[in-house]
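U., I forgot to send this yesterday:
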Amino acid sequence: MPKDNEIDSTEKLLNVIRSNDDGLNNTGNEKDTVAAPPQAKKSKLSLFPRNNILNVGVILGTKDMKMVKLKTIPGKLPELLEYKSYDVEKEVFANRPKFVSLLKSSLTDFVGVDREAANIWTVISTAKVEMRYIKIPKVPKNEISNAIYWTAKKEFSFDDKKTIFDFDLLGDINEDGFKKIESMVYSVPREEVKEIRGVFSQAGFPVDGISIVPCAIQNFIRTRFSGDDDSNICSLYIGSRWSRIDIFSSGNLVLTRDIKTGLRSMIEPFAKDIQDIIEAEPLEFDESGEIKLDIVDDDSALTMSVEDAEAIFFALIHGQPLPEKYSDLDINEKQMFDLITPALDRLVRQVERTLGHYVHLFKRSPVSKIWLSGKISDYTRMIDHFGYQLDITSLSFKDIIGEFSDNVLLFAESTSHIASFRDKIDNIGDEFDLDSDLSQFEEELPFISEIKKSGQAKESFLPAVGLALSNNEMTPNFIFTYKKKDNLELVAKLNKTVMLAFVFIMVLCFGCYGFLDYKAGQKNETIMQLEKQLDGFSPRIDENLVLGLSAQVNKKRKALKVFGSRYKGLAVINELTRLTPDNIKLKSAFANFGGITLPDENSKDKAVKFKQILKLSGIVSGDRLSLEPELSNYISGLEKSLLFGKIIKRTKTIEQPLEQGNLDENLVFTLEMEIIQDGES
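Result:
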C-alpha cells in the first residue's frame, strides 16, 4: 500500500487546485479548460471487442506519482508491462500549472504511443467518499436501481446536485427465509470528481475511471491475484496519522472504517521514551531485557524529535544503521517494539472491535485473514503480534499477491530487458529467493539491485496495480455510474434486437432467394424440355400451305354468313321478344332483308348504300306521364342491341281508348331502324 502522503494526496491536490485559481490567469485559458468538461476520448467501442486491453493505474501523491501499465487478456492473468514513479517537488505540487505540466510530461513518457488505446484510472480520497452496505428485497432487474437508490436515500442523506451516487451489486443472499440483494453504495462529491477530471483533461489525458483504494484492493481478490475469493478478509492500512480497515467477504468490499490511530500514535510515545533513554545515565538493561533508566539533568543532551524517532524506528525494523547523530544509542529492535506495544495494542483493540461488529452486523463467519499494508507492513514482529492478539492469520499485503510478486520482478526501467530476463529465469524452480537467486543477473541487469533495495518500494506500487486491474464491470467508477451502465445496457439490448432483426431479415431474404432460385431452375428445366420438343417438331410452312389455309378460312366464313342469313328473321323476332316489355304491344313488324337504297352520310360524294330495314308499329299503354319515358327506354334498349342499328325514322301519337270509363291513354308509335349486316359493328 502507499505511504500516507500517497493516500490522502488527492485531497491535498484538490485543495491546491482550489487555492491556486489566480495562478491560472497567467496561463491563458487554462482556468476555463479545467472548468469545462474533459474532452471525450476517441471511442473505444467497436463491433468486435479487442482481445487485449491496456489499463494504466495512476496514484497522485504529494511527493511522487506512481504509474502502472497492465495488459489484460481474457482468460489469462493480466500481464504487467511497466511501472514507474515520478518525483514531485513541493513547489511543483503547490503550483497548479506546473503540476499539470509535470503530469502531462509524465503520462506522455509513460503511456507513449498507446495514448488513445489506454484506459487511465486514478483514485479519489477515501475520506471523501460515503460508503454503506445495504440490502434490498429481491425485485425484478429493471427495478433494482430505484430500490437501491431510495434505500440508500433513507439510510443516509445526500444531495443529488452536489454528490454522485453509485452502487456495486454484491449478489443475492437468504435472510430469514427471504431472498435479498446486497449492495455497496457510494456517495462522492461532484466537485471532487470534476476537479480530478479537469486536471487530467488539461494534461491532455482524459481519465476513464475514478475509484478508491479499497476498490483497487477488491480488484486483487476478484481477479484472484491473491488466491483468495471465498474467505472473509480484513485489509488493515496503517498510515502516518490514521489507519483504515477494509473487510471483504467472498471478494466483495462490505465494510470500511477509518481509525485515527496511526504510525504517529506509536512514534510520539516512542520519541518520548527515547528522549528519556538519552537523558538517562548510564544506560543499563535488566535480565529480562527491559531498560533501566537513571535520569540525569544534562542540558547538552540531544533533543529527540518525532522525525528523528521515526528515522530510528525504521532503521531498527529494517536492520539498518541508526542515523549518525544517534549512532551511540544502545537500543535494539526488540526493545523498541516493547516501547511501542501499548500504542500498538490500542490499534489492535480497535481492529478487534471492528471485526466483532462485522460478525454481529452481517451474521457471517469471522474474518479468517488480516492483511497489513503501509509503511510498516514488512515489519514481521508487528505482523506476528497482530496475528497472536487477534488469533487470526496475519500477513503482509505484498506477500499475499503470489504470482504477481514474481511478475513485478520481471520489470525493468527499459522493457527491452524483459525478454532476456525471462529467458534466464525460465528454468528457476518454484522456490525463488529474491536476495540470492537474482544475484547472478545483477551485472547484466542493474535494475535488479534497485528492486532488491527495498521491499517497501515494491509494495507501494500495489494500489496502482490494483487500480490498473479495474474495469467498469468489476470496479465502481464514479464517472461511469449505474445510470450510464443502465443506458449502455439498454443500447446494447437495442443493438442486439436490431442485429437479431437484421439476421432474421437476412435469413428470410436468403430463404426467398433460395426458393426463387429453385423455382427458376424448375422453369429453366421446363423451357429446356419445351425447346427439345420444339426442336423435334419442324412443320414445312410455305406459300401454298398458307394460301390453302386462307381458302379454308374464307370458305368457313361464307358458310357462316349463309347460315346467319337463313336464320336472321328468326333472330330478329327473338331479339324483339326479349327487348319488348309487357306494357308495349307491337301491332306489326316488317323486316326488309333485301336492302333499300339510302344515302351514305359518311361519304363525301353522297354515294348510296343498301341498308336492311326493320319497321315496327305498336302501342304503349298506361299513365300519360309515363308513356314518353317508357317509349324512350324501349328505343334505347333497341339501339343497344347487337342486332339493331340506329333509328332512321319514328312517329308517335296519343289516342284515347274506346272503352267507357278507362282513364288511361295510349301512345301509338312507328319506328324504322337499321338491321346490322355482316361485317358491320
